[in-house]
Amino acid sequence: MGEYEKLNELEVSDSSVQAICFTDDPQLVSSTWDVVLIESTFPGDQIRSQRLIKIQGHPVLDQYDEWLYIDNTVRLLKPPSYILDEFLKDCDLAIPTHSYREDVLEEFAVVKDLGLDSRERLEEQRLHYEEFSPSPLRERPLWTGIIARRPTSSVRKWSDSWAQHVLRYSRRDQLSVLTAIEINKPNFKRVEIDNFSSDFHQWPIHNERKSEKRFYRGNDSAQGSERLQKEILRLGDEIRVVQDAYSNSTSWKITRPLRAISLALKAIRASNNHGTMNSDG
């Protein structure tokens, strides 16, 4: 949404799943996704408009018993039906653990340091959570690039609560997803995978992303130097070239520690049914 990046096509087929891409781009066409044109909930806030589709879904999905959300930068290596079966074996909601953050407090610090949202808003959110729901702050964060769910009443209650937090507090949804789970207690489980690569996915796969749109523009001190940001983005592009080379080699698993360092650099750069759904951008 908001012309943030170009759509990545699916590379695995699955006749049992309808693959839906929600977009506000009337010109978007795809050979692997069923494109559904939607209007942005907030034309002046494309990030939160995308988050609402990601978090709450869309009426088009009501006909399906299971949903799989994937970020546009996630490449599936196995059919979506396989992932749904694996993730939802004994739960109604499954989300991977963030594999390179120690706790949610660290995620708050990184988002603030990189200027990805208002410092004042982030501090208010953190203080409110410390007072009313402190335990999730000290848990391992979740990585919301992949979300599998059955839209049960308790899962819908959780998603509505999560959306409220994203609208009230930071647009960075990984800061609030665990708090919404703690409050609403859906039938949830963590999926322990390397966020970069597993037997069923690779990440991140960028496609002409306009990374500067991630930054919060209302606070110069949080945004940092424009020149520095451009240089970091350039270095990030070089890192991706190296990662792509390693991902196609047998040394991919051996270099996991180097990839963790690379991911930290990516974070700096950002200163930085069955229904498969992808909210474009």
Describe this structure in a few short sentences:
Helix content is 38%, strand content 12%. It has helices spanning 46-56, 80-87, 104-113, 119-132, 153-168, 177-184, 220-223, 226-247, 256-269; strands at residues 18-23, 34-37, 67-70, 75-76, 93-96, 146-149, 188-191, 201-202, 275-279. The strands form two sheets. It has a seven-stranded mixed sheet.
Distance between the terminal alpha carbons, to the nearest Å? 5 Å
Q: What is the string of SSEs from the N terminus onward?
A: EEHEEHEHHEHHEEHHHE
Estimated share of beta-strand residues: 5-15%
The largest sheet, given as strand count, sense and whether it forms a barrel, is:
7 strands, mixed
Low-confidence stretches: 220-225, 269-275
Helix content: 25-40%
- Give the radius of gyration: 18 Å
**Count of individual beta strands:** 9
How many helices? The count is 9
Question: What is the topological layout?
Answer:
Blueprint: E1 18-23, E2 34-37, H1 46-56, E3 67-70, E4 75-76, H2 80-87, E5 93-96, H3 104-113, H4 119-132, E6 146-149, H5 153-168, H6 177-184, E7 188-191, E8 201-202, H7 220-223, H8 226-247, H9 256-269, E9 275-279
Parallel strand pairs: 1-2, 1-9, 3-9, 5-7
Antiparallel strand pairs: 3-6, 4-8, 5-6
Helix pairs in contact: 1-5, 5-6, 8-9
